[in-house]
Amino acid sequence: MIELVECPRDAMQGWHRPINTDTKVAYLKALLKVGFSVLDFGSFVSPKAIPQMADTKEVLSRLDYKSLQTKTKLLAIIANVRGAQEACQYEEIHYLGFPFSISETFQRRNTNSTLAESFDRVKQIQQLCQAHGKALVIYLSMGFGNPYGDAYSPEILQDWAAKMANLGIKTISLADTVGLATPAQIKEAVQELIPQYPAITFGVHLHATRQNSKAKIQAALEAGCIRFDGALKGIGGCPMAQDDLVGNMDTELMIDMFKSKGIN
């Protein structure tokens, strides 16, 4: 069975015009009725960095999550210990997601911290999650290369996955942040990691164009991946991609593919 993670937060955060809170609440309530495994709904980050997510607390308070009686679990993105502390106060939130880039340059741009500093944050956040009954999801961003000339190899990706595994992280998502990954890279990475860590769920957060979406999904499926991130219409993606066509994986496309293969 596939775990499908719908990411409206990722779709909304790069939207050029402000989306009002009423619209967000109505949209998220509708998504919570669909049956996704996880809903990446908002983030506890600086409103200066991501203005579109400044109302995450208000949105959460108005979702009336318990009354919806949904099986969908909520995930919030955090970038530092302060954000994790805030997110841990909400019973409705099951997952905290931390973007850990294996590119030093991108990690500084994304969370204003070095790799070493970010790894220390992960340790602290994992302790917070364990103390509050939350699960930490680590996104290994720039997981298939980067446009900055920072060192990259499959061995570097595997090394950081091992470090996260040693902290007791149970969910790791390999993120094709700027759409650089080839299907062969995706398949190799996933099928290398899954057998090594049977207690960990490895997912993929892939960015793609219409031309290469299916090939990337197929590669992850063949490698044994069961957790896929997407966004309706493929909206969103990383602004660092410098290509408007490199967006999130299209949820409808994935659902159609899974159905055609008889996958639940």
TrEMBL record:
GO MF annotations, alphabetized: hydroxymethylglutaryl-CoA lyase activity; metal ion binding
Transmembrane domains' residue ranges = none
Q: What positions belong to coiled-coil segments?
A: none
What SUPFAM superfamilies does the entry give? Answer: Aldolase
Instruction: Note whether Metal-binding occurs among the keywords.
Output: yes
Keywords attached to this entry: Lyase, Metal-binding
Q: Which residues form the Pyruvate carboxyltransferase domain?
A: 1-264
The answer to keyword Transcription applying to this record is no
GO biological process entries: ketone body biosynthetic process; L-leucine catabolic process
Q: Which InterPro entries match?
A: Aldolase_TIM, HMGL, PYR_CT
| Family from the record | Belongs to the HMG-CoA lyase family.
Entry protein name: Hydroxymethylglutaryl-CoA lyase
